Amino acid sequence: MATDNKITRKKIKSAVAASKFMADYYHELNAASERGTPQIAWCTSVGPAEILRAMGYLVYFPETHSAMLGATRMATELIPEANALGYSPDICSYLTADIGAFLKGVTPLAKIYEGINGIPKPDVLVFNTNQCRDVQDWFSWYGEKFNVPVLGVYTHRNVGDVSNALVSSIAEQMKALAGSLEEISGRRLDLDRLKEVVKLSRECSDLWKQVLQTAASRPSPITFFDATTLMGPAVVGRGTPKAVAIYKGLLSELEERIRNAESSIDDERFRIYWEGMPVWGRLRAHFELFAALNANVLASTYCNSWIFSRLNPEDLFNSMAEAYTELFIVRSDEAKEKYIKDMLDFYDIDGIIYHDAKTCPNNSNCRYGMPQRLEKQTGIPSLTIHGDLNDLRLVSDEQTKTNVEAFIEQLEEAKG
Ligand code: SF4
After folding, report:
1. Does any ligand 1 atom lie closer than 6 A to the CB of residue 127?
2. Is the CB–ligand 1 distance for residue 362 below 6 Å?
3. 217: exposed, middle or buried (C-beta count within 10 Å: 0-12, 13-18, 19+)?
4. How many angstroms separate the CA atoms of 66 and 338, rounded?
5. Is the CB of 92 under 6 A from ligand 1?
6. Closest atom of ligand 1 to CA, residue 138
7. Whole-model pTM?
8. Which of 46, 72, 86, 237 sees the fewest Cβ atoms within 10 Å?
9. Of the candidates 184, 132, 170, the residue with the CA atom closest to the CA atom of residue 329
10. Are residues 371 and 400 in contact, defined by beta-carbon separation less than 8 angstroms?
């Protein structure tokens, strides 16, 4: 099989607007941190951002910062700093890289954005354990450092059916959270403002979903690797009109690509689904590896994580509780398998890559027989690659290359 094709990455024009969005976002946070106003809340990536925004906080997401540490390949050498404090090299490398960066006084924000020298200081930290327990430890550490309150929503995990009882218990926690924030900030939660934010968040989510679904076209106008960076505004900007505008522009660009049958890679022969986290420090390398084999990694569970279709401005707390509990990462294996099967069908997938990220068991779904069960049910083969989201010492480029090449060859043979 030829692997010496010249690989060109087809630029998405709207990426410029998305990058400007991110630059403005970090500059606004930086200015607020220096002035001390407006107040800043740190939030987990699938935490209750709408409540925080509606209460007038600017919202900062440490996970996005840590993904930047990964993408800039700063993370690996920072992780040992946190290990020295007792945070194991086996736990979340977002946590260890981010705390390591803080201890060393470095940030990719300073490299990327002129005039920014550090991360924004929190006035309060708010986590949701819907994704993992690591976020609680991570935020508690900063709570102590900055001497500010740390609040949490505790979500059950391994959820099968999202029952009414579960939704109402989370909704009650969210109401209590709002009450605590009112006490801490001295401001009232304006329900009309919350309605507006939830409406915008839902709009952003719907557009982001439509953007990702353009990949169902053959050839796909977008790759998973494009989506991992384009998703920035959906993660940090949901609930704002600016994020909505970004995705309107992106969607219309991708629709134009579809009309022109413009593919995101040359000669798309194989359609691949990515299950698990990206390897942030290898986005380009992995794009090139697959594209050279005419394999388009075009859809993923990961980028779908910021689709919150249950959000409903007419049923604020229940719908937020439902949206943040029906997420893939919160669910039982049975629910996850059904979800992946639907995705394989929708995107007309030839093969699945499972990324077994050593430090994130929560986003690695290949450890308890799921690939084998799904292959038996769908006939779609898979490959597990071993690596990590941030710690490049756990990534073997040679082994990944050899295994991916053999896997695509297997798909080629199956096509006949
Ligand atoms: S889900 Fe994984 S990567 Fe994300 S914060 Fe939790 S352990 Fe870290």
Report:
1. no
2. yes
3. buried
4. 31
5. yes
6. 5
7. 0.97
8. 86
9. 132
10. no
DSSP 120-187: PPPSEEEEETTS-SHHHHHHHHHHHHHT--EEEE----SBSS--HHHHHHHHHHHHHHHHHHHHHHS-
d(CA 55, CA 184): 11
d(CA 81, CA 102): 9
Question: How many Cα neighbours within 13 Å face the side chain of 246?
Answer: 30
81 CA to middle of ligand 1, Å?
18
Mutation probe of ligand 1 site: the residue of 68, 69, 129, 131 with most atoms within 8 A of C-beta = 131
State how far the Cα of 198 lies from the Cα of 44, in Å rounded to an integer.
17
Which residue lies with its CA nearest to atom 2 of ligand 1? 360
pLDDT in tens, the chain (416 residues): 444 557 888 899 999 999 999 999 999 999 999 999 999 999 999 999 999 999 999 999 999 999 999 999 999 999 999 999 999 999 999 999 999 999 999 999 999 999 999 999 999 999 999 999 999 999 999 999 999 999 999 998 999 999 999 999 999 999 999 999 999 999 999 999 999 999 999 999 999 999 999 999 999 999 999 999 999 999 999 999 999 999 999 999 999 999 999 999 999 999 999 999 999 999 999 999 999 999 999 999 999 999 999 999 999 999 999 999 999 999 999 999 999 999 999 999 999 999 999 999 999 999 999 999 999 999 999 999 999 999 999 999 999 999 999 999 999 999 87
Question: Is the beta carbon of 390 within 6 A of some atom in ligand 1?
Answer: no
Alpha carbons 412 and 408: distance in angstroms, whole number: 6
Phi, psi of 91 (to 5 degrees): -90, 175
Nearest CA to ligand 1 atom 5: 135
Who's near 103: CB < 8 A, 6+ residues apart? 78, 81, 82, 85
Dist. CA 401 → ligand 1 center (Å): 25
What one-character DSSP code corresponds to residue 331?
B
The rounded Å distance from CA 291 to ligand 1 centre is 28
Contact assessment for residue 269 and residue 291, using Cβ atoms and an 8 Å cutoff: no
